[in-house]
Design brief:
The chain is α+β, with helices and mostly antiparallel strands. The protein is built from 4 helices and 4 strands. It has one domain (3-106). Helix 3 packs across helix 4.
């Protein structure tokens, strides 16, 4: 079974990785048993508000599907090892939810 993750980073680095793989059956059984959900599902609205009110940090929010066996820790380690390659990979294979990516042509003073 593939896993889906919300991945959030800005110009200072990776900020958040959340596994959003839970399906409806898992949620229903957890509710019926009175058990907490296995994963914390992020509120995308909160992430979007954070990004919109901190435009100077150039947030990017993506949802990415990974093959079975890939964990949130694997994604964090990938960003630690090579942040630029990781961001480029997520941009290429992920679904963009929000992007304030800085455009080099708009930068007047470097």
């Amino acid at each position: 079974m593939n896993h889906q993750f919300v991945v959030v980073w800005d110009n200072t680095g990776l900020e958040y990785v959340g596994d959003i793989t839970l399906d409806e059956q898992q949620r229903t059984w957890s509710a019926l048993k009175g058990e907490p959900l296995k994963y914390t599902i992020p509120n995308l609205g909160h992430l979007m508000i954070r990004a919109r009110y901190n435009t100077q940090r150039h947030y990017e929010i993506y949802i990415v599907t990974a093959t079975d066996g890939i964990t949130a820790d694997d994604i964090r380690e990938m960003f630690e090892a090579n942040p630029q390659m990781s961001a480029d990979t997520i941009r290429r294979i992920g679904q963009c939810v929000h992007s304030d990516r800085a455009n080099k042509e708009e930068i007047l003073i470097t």
